[in-house]
Amino acid sequence: MGRRKNLITIAAGQSLRDVKQMVAAKHAELDALVARRGEIANARASIDARPVAPQSAPVRRGPGRPKGSARKPGRPKGSGRGPGRPPKAAASAPQRGRPAKKAGASKPATAPKDYASLDAAIRTALAAANSPMKAGDLAKQVLANGYVTTSKALHLEIGRRLAAMSDVAKADAGGYALKV
Description:
Among the domains are: 2-46; 116-178. Helix content is 43%, strand content 3%. It contains 5 helices and 2 strands, in the order αααααββ. The protein has a two-stranded antiparallel ribbon with strand order 1-2. It starts with a helix and ends with a strand.
């Protein structure tokens, strides 16, 4: 809006013929800009129409390899030796890196554990308690009731079982109690 306002202010002190000449000059400038825009559009279209050579993918380097250490074209993959030198014998070269795991050393499949007796012992201990119990206190009570286990961290196993049992709820004050 500022340019237009300035033009009106300038034209206020001039005659009608001078204002018409200024308007004609502005129209000529606009026509020249439109023509230049057409030239640029034609030039861009001719550039876009040219065939573009496909770009090759950048050479990827492995971790820790400095720039310029990519394999040279024409060399066999993994040779790593200079041109004209025979490759090293595979038997004499020491094996590098961590040794591969042997194929038949997997653990035998174990049968899924039956937690029915542990669940029953947990329910018995919770039913006997008159307030919510934490997993550690519950583990002590289950052992005191005669549950036999070889686990060194029975409280962790009881915590997992409490999360899986649908008739046990976590109390607001902390600990677990049977749902009523």
